[in-house]
What we know:
By secondary structure, chain A is mainly alpha-helical. Chain A is built from ten helices and two strands. Chain A has one domain (about 55-315): MetI-like fold, CATH 1.10.3720. Helix content of chain A is about 70%, strand content about 0%. Chain B contains 19 helices and no strands.
Amino acid sequence: MSAPTTSPPAPPPARAKRRIGDVLFRGSTQVAAGIILVALAGVAIFLTAEGIPALRADAAHLAGESTFLAYAWPLLFGTLLAAFIALLIATPLAIGVALAISHYAPRRLANLVGYVIDLLAAVPSVVYGLWGANVLGPAMVPVYRWLSEHLGFLPLFAGPASGGGRTMLTAGLVLAIMALPIITAICREIFSQTPRLHEEAALALGATRWEMIRMAVFPYSRSGIVSAVMLGLGRALGETMAVALVLSAFRIVSWDLVSGTAPSTIAANIALSFPEATGVGVNVLIATGLVLFVITFAVNFSARMIVARSEKGLVR
Amino acid sequence: MSPIRIRTKERPVSTDDRPQDPPANSASGRATVGTGPGQPVAAGPDTTGPDTTGPDATEPAAVAPAPDGPGGSGGRRAARGSAVRGEVSLRAPKLPRWAPLLTALVATAAGALLALTLGWGLIAFAVVSAAVYAVALPAWALVVENRRSAVDRLITTLVWSAFAIALVPLVSLTWTVVSKGAPAFSAEFFSYSMRNVVGEGGGIYHAIVGTLLITGMAAVLSIPIGLMTAIYLVEYGAGRRPARVINFLVDVMTGIPSIVAGLFAFALFSIFFGPGVRMGFGGSVALSVLMIPVVVRSCEEMLKLVPNELREASYALGVPQWRTIVKVVLPTAMAGIVTGVMLAIARVAGETAPLLVIAGSTDSVNMNLFAERMMTLPVFAYYSYMQPGVPPQFGVERAWGAALALILIVMSLNLLGRLLGRLFAPKTGR
Amino acid sequence: MATSIDVSDLDIYYGDFKAVEGVTMSIPAKSVTAFIGPSGCGKSTFLRSLNRMHEVVPGARVDGRVVMGGQDLYGSDVDPVEVRRQVGMVFQRPNPFPTMSIYENVLAGNRLNSRRMKKSEADDIVERALRGANLWKEVSDRLDKPGAGLSGGQQQRLCIARAIAVEPQVLLMDEPCSALDPISTSAIEDLIHELRTEYTIVIVTHNMQQAARFSEDTAFFNLAGAGKPGRLVEMNSTKKIFSVPDDPSTEAYISGRFG
Lengths: 316, 430, 259
């Protein structure tokens, strides 16, 4: 298949006549694909158009802040912090669950578990929010109290511990549970795509199951795991309702994970403030939405890049 | 630690020496025995079990070479022994099959003891038991087997506990929603709106109507666009530049946060209908933005699974490309497409944030997608919880009831999708 | 209803890669012509160019002429879809449509082009095609069962029935027996033997005995060298090719000395 011959001398043969059915059908698929282009351009254009007035907003619409950046920064901080906590918790769990499904559990159990994890993904976010605020938060209160008493010297657990459990850590936990199915699903897919030959080669060398996974499965799926985590991050960043229900909104910058005064996130802030917002206040919220869009776009984009780059190098 | 590490290093060396240096047998005997105490000659895999029930098993192992060593004069037995020695011993000390169970029992007992004496709760008990197990079993394996096997057992434990931890929220969530939501269910709950209701009573009729209308409209918008785009990507575009661009845009679209989709719909509609616009159709548009990429991806996946041979067979019969796609490719992929589409619908049916922004909230039934605010189940659950009214317990109860109804709708869509997929699957008849 | 095919100076490209170079041959009507040669020498590509199937691969194109019944298949006003209706094809692996019954599979060529026909006419076509493919006796009692439920050999005969149901002039077969067991293979070979009275049959095969058994003419393809395009080495009557071929490399290939 190498060494292409010298370029062909004659021009390509004339196109045969086209059938009207083919032309119409092909045309309509192209229109559909075009709509996606238009929709995405629309998202960018309309958000920008409606967001720009926020840059000139006055303090009355910026919750007392003088500039838009000063308004948005604490929210951005809260968004990133919550998503970071979520990933810290979700990633090892997801990899463990994915391994359990792909390499440890017997096939029937694995199928069942895979299905259960998919169900976890199907639960609406508002239900997670209700559960986080009502069940998880209160259940974690003793833990928070313990953390602030014994590890209070760390800024993370400075306290005072929240009495209702509506803390950053609770929000992070809920987000972790919500990001778990995505990461698990992708990791599972990638783990089960490990070439059988590599696995058997490792086992034939006398490797234990874990050594086989380390030798054959992980190197093969490293980029896949990274992109799975990034996609989970994308979901955690943009998640709205769970955070809106769990956290009482404060626009502050605070590292304290166990106190009741926690920084809110961009998405939750929009959901909480939007119904009451008027005039330029709406534009301010849309502008923060644009910021969120740009961040998730960057995260997703780099995830895809990582996958694309490694796919080039991997001969499957 | 150190003797064990030596043993694991020693073993392969000794197996290498043995064939070429028979007199050295006794010297390397320790290592040989490390791989199989007792009678190495007549041992099946089962008999190694009882020999290695505890850490003590290494002790006899160290002494064991004597009966079997070069000094052994029983002719036949010695011959067989050396025959085995001449080859490679395949046996290694191994924990009995019931070791994990025993460890689990001990760990549970230890956890229970601590929990009882110190008055801990259920969670602390589970955590302590799991921790004891995760330390004890690898430690035992480390003593009896070797370091590699101990690591293997540790990881196995961790993998399974990750799995167990992941199940906890699911179980807790299901239990909470069902137990708190079920009491709200009644005929009134499903057949009344919240119009003029203060305190007790009222229902989610208006929210169910809204969810069905908005989600249905979103499906009507998304399915043709998504399916046709997938057909374009798989059948027409295949690797060319425009298809690659669309592919990338679909990826970008997948990552749009749901609240941003709501803001987009709001920004779009407020340009046409003035600021402060709220309408159900806007919600459908927002949901479509979230749904189209999911539909595209699942349809694309399914179309790619259709073997090329079928397309070629159809072309070879003189069938034009579009008829091939419509009559051969799509029917073959139908099962997966139906499932994928249903899962996509189920996913957006539970979306809250975009509807909060563009569809708004109301207490009355609104059947018109193109005018006025429209209530939906997730938004209803959210507001009933955040602003339960006075006295609050009725609002909160309705919130849980709406959450349960929402979960039931989403799950039945989910199951329906899988069921339909099975129904549409090509039959082999074999 | 069978016709001969005259190929003159045909080059086939995939993008910039020239796969087959300068083939000139004449395929006689109502006979079996076999293509043999080592793997990757372009014989399947050449076969697919005879009904413009190779165009399914993006970037594929040809230079040269393929004349069938006085028309150049690559003429500017020729519709590839029409070409394929006249030149049927059977593939290496049996590929019945999984969503269709045996009955619908046979009628696929007609139905997919939404030709309207009466039930009796349709029944007629199905029976004729299945009888023609020696499959009628085996499946006449379960025509409404899925085609994918048949055995491999039966599936391949179903595919042949599907191909002849549209009454083509030429039947191209791309290693039709290579995925089948010996018994099914012999059934297909018998079938090909019978079909030659009505169709012009061109078959690609790796099995030299097969070519010798039932073809009238044999064409030997080979690569001009590593990385070079495939070409036609010689085409002669099967008897001559297998006894006294003109080209030494043909003899070497047939006697198993290479390839």
